[in-house]
What we know:
Blueprint: H1 6-9, H2 18-32, H3 42-57, H4 59-72, E1 89-91, H5 103-109, E2 122-128, H6 130-135, E3 137-148, E4 154-165, E5 174-177, E6 193-199, E7 205-208, E8 211-218, H7 220-225, E9 227-231, E10 238-242, E11 251-254, E12 267-273, H8 281-293
Helix pairs in contact: 2-3, 3-4
Amino acid sequence: MEFKDYYARLGLARAATQDEIKRAYRKLARKYHPDxxxxxxxxxxFKEVAEAYEALKDPEKRAAYDAVGQQHGGATDFRPPPGxxxxxxxxxxxxxxxxxxxxxxxxxxxxxxxxxxxxxxxxAKVLIDLLDAYRGGRRSVSLQVPTRDAQGxxxxxxxxxxxxxxxxxxxxxxxxxxxxxxxxxxxxPAGDLYLEVHFRPDKLFRLDGRDVFxxxxxxxxxxxxxxxxxxxxxxxxxxxTIPAASSSGRKLRLRGKGLPGTPxxxxxxxxxxxxxxADDEPARAAYRTLAGSFAGFNPRSTLEQ
Length: 305
């Protein structure tokens, strides 16, 4: 993912004041506005300038962006670690914003609308484990909330919340926590907090909607002759029958073993044939015997012209 240097895009130092940010944006917006600019790439330039301003004009977004920038370290190719963009809480609900933002912007700030009523609804992106979606239940989540002290200095404060995770929740769904957003004015009620749910990367399983995929290594004889093997599943191991004459890449479906729902998803085991190592003389002799038994077999016959 490309790291967006919003300060550089506006021609500013990282210590720029909010007034300097506003002046730089107005200057560049006049220069690149598609209705008046003569620049050949005015529209693209205008979008970049607008996105940079969107990120830096809001003290909450700016604090989160600065925190990510410290981890970035100036590398050209930004390779974010898992969960790099989760746990930041911002003003504004989930919305359905129409602004054309980059992947970097949407990954950091979620799918919040570009315009919002500050201090009312809040939103944040949180990470859960795949098993949390299978079982549901209460989980503790940590959020970093931009907060101003009495002198107006902005900092990130840690906020802990106990959240009820519904069984079968999917990637990208929002959880609404009533009254956990910004405080109301006067006697008005507090806003709501919307949590955009994403899954931590799992070392075994991949998700596609409600379907779950796992790579399953099998031996050549299990693939050729068929076998019953133990396969991993999110809620525990299952017995899986490997049909005879299976090949690498074959998908075996366990109906209803994906994410819970109405209907539930399926669990797919993707077969891969694992070869024993030829790391001693008996193993090499066994391979030579196998080669002799299948002397007429050519796996590249389909490639011949």
